[in-house]
Design a protein that fits this description.
single chain, 221 residues, alpha/beta, Rossmann fold, 8 helices, 7 strands, 37% helix, 23% strand, globular
């Protein structure tokens, strides 16, 4: 079977799956990238204006241990090149890893600023410039530490159909959140990034306050 035939078969199988209660598959197309050829899927979250994106490599349905990254949008680092966090590095690492694999997926979720939105995230940055850490700033604005959801990601993964995933993350709460939504996480793959003088405090806070598995001593995050 040719590569085109394999892609056509995988696409047909994908579109044959009924939409979930939370999301619907709206668009799909091949996308050549510097990390290889992906199929780009757009899932619309029902009842909202959010469109979540999946960079899909191969046909993952029914396979065990599929490498998957569930990544939340971070405009400041991914577009503007902010050094305050490690989000862009983690996204690039995941795309590179999945691009080298036979199959895998990177889910890009529209939940900026750990779920508080871009404007409130910038307001939180202002509070951080005055000495608050990333969690204190959220609380001063009246938000919880982390408002991200994993039900939408789980519904997308159920649509894609892997038997189990190897989750690319340093966040144990993300593993717990997906497992609570019925996703089988076989193991964790460390998410790798560099640290710098602007994000070292942020990374230490994530490790100390919410148990992120970040190895700063090895210059990774």
């Amino acid at each position: 079977m040719s590569t085109k035939e394999e892609i056509d078969l995988a696409t047909a199988r994908l579109h044959a799956v009924p939409n979930s209660p939370l999301v619907e598959l709206y668009a799909e197309a091949p996308l050549p990238t510097r990390h290889g050829l992906f199929r780009t899927l757009v899932f619309r979250e029902k009842g909202t204006d959010k469109e979540h994106v999946v960079a899909l490599k191969g046909d993952i349905r029914g396979h065990e241990g599929v490498p998957v990254r569930v990544h939340s949008e971070c405009l400041t680092s991914e577009i503007l090149g902010s050094l305050k966090c490690d989000c862009r590095d983690q996204l690039e690492h995941a795309l590179e890893l999945v691009g080298r694999s036979e199959r895998g997926a990177v889910l890009y979720l529209r939940q900026e600023g750990r779920g508080i939105g871009l404007g409130n995230k910038i307001r939180a940055y202002e509070l951080q410039s005055r000495g608050a850490d990333t969690y204190e700033a959220n609380r001063q604005l009246g938000f919880q530490d982390d408002l991200r959801r994993y039900d939408v990601a789980a519904d997308i993964l159920k649509h894609l159909g892997p038997a189990s995933i190897d989750l690319i993350t340093n966040n144990p709460l993300k593993i717990e959140g997906l497992e609570n939504e019925g996703i089988t996480v076989r193991r964790r793959i460390a998410s790798v990034a560099t640290f710098n003088p602007h994000n070292i405090g942020y990374l230490r806070t994530k490790r100390e306050r919410t148990g992120h598995l970040i190895e700063l001593e090895k210059s990774t995050a």
